[in-house]
Amino acid sequence: MSPYRKKFADTRFKIGFRNIKTAVSVGVCLLVFQLLGVSDGIQASITAIICMKSSLQNSLQTGLERVIGTVIGALIGMAALLLLLEAGSIYAVPIAIVSVVIIIYFCNVFKVQNSIIIGLVVFLMILVGEKTQTPLVYGIMRLIETIFGIAAAYLINLLFDPKILPFKKKTRKAPEIRGYKAGDIASIMSLWISSNIRMYPTVNPDFWHDTYEETRSHYLSQDTTLYLYEKGDEVLGFVCIQEGLKLDGPHVRMGHHWENVGTSLIQHVQRLYQSLSAEVPESSENYQEIFLEEGFSVTKESHSAVSDGNILTLEWSSKDN
Predict the structure, then answer these.
(1) Collapsed DSSP state (helix, strand, coil) of residue 312
(2) Distance (Å, whole) CA 214 – CA 125
(3) Span 163-169, mean pLDDT?
(4) Are 144 and 95 spatial neighbours (Cβ–Cβ below 8 Å)?
(5) Does the domain spanning 176-320 belong to CATH 3.40.630.30?
(6) What angle do CA 50, 53, 57 make, to 5 degrees?
(7) Which of 91, 170, 191, 283 could bond 251 through an S-S bridge, CB–CB 3.0 to 4.6 Å?
(8) What backbone torsions phi and psi does residue 200 show, to the nearest 5 degrees?
(9) What is the pTM of this model?
(10) Cβ(91)–Cβ(171) below 8 Å
């Protein structure tokens, strides 16, 4: 098989449900607002893209958080517009800078850190968009459009939920997350090596092989708890909880979607533990996104001598969610 055909056959590059749901959500937003003739629907579409998640539960939770961020961004945006009318456009930049600080502050106060981006998007669209209405009316219209995008993402996710689609295959054994069993260590270590090689491309692979036995002994010690994602008779991923707090992983088999395996493992341990911390390479944005979508926040940045890159420490607590 040629390299190009092999790439297209790889499951990582196939069009999945999240891809389709996002496209449909954008189409609905554009169509509705263009038919109504009140807007081009761009802001609603942007909101739908930001809020679309891989599961219905994620989409609902994200939608509720985004509504709060949207209201904060809209209110600050309307206040900024009123200030500009009084002070003049010469103060636009200082007002924008102060407003951004205030929006981020209030998102932190209301514990909706994941809503910071959408709050800032709404604020900037209100501040710099073409205005043919008063600041109050204009801000309310942008707020309505953003909330429509949130609702569209949730409803499309509901309609495309694989659990209720008629063509779902029912003969396959459902995946399960379970604890460690005797004999699992070979699969776990294989996943650990391949996962770290992919996650830290600048590190010589020999490093992981040299630390193999040390890591194996650590995983088998009483200080760690292992959770495995198994489908059929195949282990597709695992996480390790160290000292009841530190999350190592998720380590996922190559070719399987993070949003299915990695997210499921993170959500599973979140149901079992009150607080968790994880270390993620700054260069792996996709890896970071998985944790941020599940409510983790970046609390520390440090340099790794092994990878010669920055490592982000992310923390999560059930009290903040």
Answers:
(1) strand
(2) 53
(3) 50
(4) no
(5) yes
(6) 130
(7) 191
(8) -125, 75
(9) 0.45
(10) no
How far apart CA 130 and CA 117 sit, in angstroms, is 21
* Whole-number Cα distances in Å, 25 to 20, 39, 42, 60, 77: 9, 16, 12, 15, 26
- Residues written for the chain: 321
On whether the CB atoms of residues 263 and 54 are closer than 8 A, the answer is: yes
Res. 101: pLDDT tops 90? yes
**Alpha helices (H) in 129-260, listed in sequence order:** 135-159, 185-199, 205-210, 212-219
- What's the one-letter identity of residue 37? G
CA–CA distances in Å: residue 311 to residues 10, 108, 214 = 29, 23, 22
Mean pLDDT across the chain? 77
User: Tokens 């309307």 belong to which residue?
Assistant: 78
- Please give the Cα distance from 310 to 91 (Å, whole number): 37
Q: Which residue ranges make up each domain of the chain?
A: 6-159, 176-320
Say whether pLDDT at 15 is over 70. Answer: no
Mean pLDDT (whole number) for 261-275: 83
Element (H, E) at 311: strand 309-317
User: Which DSSP state fits 283?
Assistant: T
Q: What are the E-state strand segments in 33-156?
A: none
Cα separation, 34 vs 291, in Å, equals 36
pLDDT of 59 higher than 60: no
Is 48 strand, coil or helix?
A: helix
State residue 8's pLDDT score. Answer: 45
Backbone angles phi, psi at 233, to 5 degrees: -110, 15
pLDDT confidence of residue 100: 93
- Both tokens assigned to 19: 């891809």
Give the residues across from 153 on adjacent strands: none
171 pLDDT above the threshold of 50: no
Residue 284 identity (one-letter amino acid): S
Tell whether the model's pLDDT for residue 143 goes beyond 60: yes
Taking a C-beta distance cutoff of 8 angstroms, is the pair 316, 247 a contact? no
DSSP notation for 296-310: -EEEEEEEETTTTEE
- Asked whether 260 and 252 are in contact (CB, 8 A), the reply is no
**What pLDDT score was predicted for residue 7?**
45
User: Pick from 30, 69, 75, 68: which is nearest to 48 by CA?
Assistant: 30
